[in-house]
Fold this protein.
Amino acid sequence: ALRVSAVAEADKTAAINKSGTSSVPATTKDIENKLRYLFGRNEVSTPNDAYQGTAWSVRERLIDAFNKTHEHWKKEDPKFIYYLSAEFLMGRSLTNTVFNLGLQGDYATALKELGQKMEQVAEAERDAALGNGGLGRLAACFLDSMATLDLPGWGYGIRYKYGMFKQALKDGYQQELPDIWLTSGNPWEVRRDDVRHMVGFGGRVERRREAGGREVAVWTPAEQVIAQAYDNPIPGYSTPTTSNLRLWDALPLSEFDLAAFNAGDYDRAMLARERAEAISAVLYPNDSTPEGKELRLKQQYFFVCASLQDVLSRFKATHGSARWDLLPSKAVFQLNDTHPTIAVAELMRLLVDVEGLEWDEAWGITTKCLNYTNHTVMPEALEKWPVKVMAKMLPRHMEIIEVINEGWTQWLSAHLASELPAPEERAKRIAAMSIIHENPWNKEEMLVNMAYLAVVGSSAVNGVAAIHSNIVKDEIFNDFYKIFPSKFQNKTNGVTPRRWLAWCNPELADLITQQLGSDAWINDTEQLTALRTHASDPAFQQRWAAVKSAKKERLAGLIKRVWGEEVNTAALFDIQIKRIHEYKRQYLNVLSIIWRYKQLKRMSPQQRLQAVPRVCVIGGKAASAYDMAKRIIRLVTAVGSVINADPDTRDYLRLYFLPDYNVSLAETIIPAAELSQHISTAGTEASGTSNMKFALNGCLIIGTWDGANIEIAEETGVENVFVFGVRAEDINGLRKERKNFKTDPRWDEIMRDIEGGMFGDKEYFKPLVDSVNNMKVGNDWFLLANDFAAYLDAQQQVDECYRDQAEWLRRSIMYTAGSGKFSSDRTIRQYAEDIWHVGPCRPPPAAGGQQ
Ligand code: BZD
């Protein structure tokens, strides 16, 4: 007989027991069967059991939708988008899949029958963390929107065995643990044993003359691996469309070297296998400085080569090998940053060496098919590979890049002849725009500039927020912009309103739906503007506040689990969650918390009663080799332990570092946030996307005039945002004058406190203090001292506003109401219209389906 957990009501248990399995609804039975036959477990007794049974059951519905969509797309043969990205930060899939497919009723009831709650069951899933941060999560939001908008398109990437490391704290310091996410199987993927491609590395290139007299390059790689496809179906919301994320796993050509094995050399027998598997083994945990390791280039080429072969072989199957001129009308590739830029050379190689096209024809096709998105302006983040490394690993590609660069610089020379008649001037400009150039720090070394290769090889180049796209045009690629102004575009980022409001904050979503009279805002977020007229309505504000309170309670529960401490849920919940980086200035946040603490200490108990209580939360991972970022984490935990233990102030101020920030944690934290911090030095954060998620959930922003903060302020009303700090156009001047800058006395005091050991660990914090205090050019690069006083003022305004709860709630509603623009549906529509030139292609509704 079936045993259900104690939470199930007695009558239900009786009903099930009485009639055996026959009264159990089909879905319940299916969940049990999956658990029984796939895992050999006879009862659903834990949320994890329920998760496994449910996920494997949902998977079948998902695959049905996937198959129907792809049958339809095959028949219609529309133009396809291929989103090439080294990272897809998908997070959990169960809730999103169930809701996007409209199956929540079925599964919620079935789980209830089994004595389980959908919410808890969903928590048993491990995050798919195949990305670092913003760039990877953007790719995931884009897949959701493409499917929801019925756009034929796939993501292509790497199936890392180990994703983003898990972060733990040990004595307040970051510790990195491996992310072993595939151990209990992955119900959200389908291995395609019939989809495999060979990928080669190294070796040599020879010339051969073909029968017709044409000279061809023949590349004989020294090493070959197999790219094995895994498909991850991507369900759209409120549509039968279910698209695909195809990820590649690297396998050895043969299980092991039999000759070596027979000779008794077991280590050598396994070597090729290990080398191959290393390629898709682990995600590089760096989110801003490129990892110059050969293995990283190998990863990039591995997934690009497999993906392009895959697309070209499907194209050939439909259109034969004589109509390559049609390729740009059937396929468009988006390069997510420079990581897949080797695609420029690889597409040329496939068209010229393999398919036998003439160079010029191939170049015309290649540049029509490719587009490039830039995500960062920081010079050290722009990827460059030593020519030596590239030539050794990808000898044919290096030749192709050299030929591309020759053609490019020759063309430039002619193009610039009238503008720069003096030969030295012209040579200088050409050198500055050359794809291959000297390493400025080591004249001996030549580098391939991947961003320049992407710009030259693409039809469109875009930044990810208005200010960022202007910096792309006016600074980092200005020489290119002057020559090809129409190539450069802006596509302000967006986030999916499904995951980031409807599914992660169903209480707020229900309130909005009730107020607007329909849930149509979920795929038409512009409808949220109608909330503006209710922003000052006290009754609506009260209901709005009740939702926020419930979410704060939940976050308080999480803090309790992690830190063992109760927090005051009437306090202002102040959050900064993102990768730890000097430019994002978590350090500045800590400095202001220290100042707040010192002020509270100086007050009398009577005065303190007037203070606005705050619970500050900081979360984020530091790249393993980023020493300064790790020191910042330690500063947060050290300051937190002093503040949280102080009986004088602990009712008014807390600081907690929440370890292992990831997509799922964001889904809990963001709905509970009242104030969120986006305080990067102006001109450094390309866009930011968590700012959009917070705004969507009615969270106020304290931020600099940077990235998408600017556009959020425009939509929300700049008077509703706590904006502070220097502007991007003043940064260069201020950096030069930094040594003459007179720091605020409050700043000096705090620096003395940290140096003097107020938070312990003074030796460890010394480099942090020095990084912002030695008044030589280049120090305090991110201008914390310049923004410090303005930041404290803005924090003061936050307190004043919070005292007036009606005003705070009005603003909170205005943020959600102003979020319409920041749906990734809008972003994707703009890519589809302005860059991809791809239209929707919706499969017919499933028989008996809800859509
Ligand atoms: O991309 C981020 C930017 O910093 C954000 O401002 C922006 O909102 C998002 C999305 O456009 N960039 C990254 O996340 N970059 C990386 O993660 C990364 C990863 C590997 C190598 C280099 C950068």
Remarks:
- The two ends are 37 Å apart (CA to CA).
- DSSP finds 33 helices and 24 strands in the chain.
- The first strand starts at residue 80 and ends at 84.
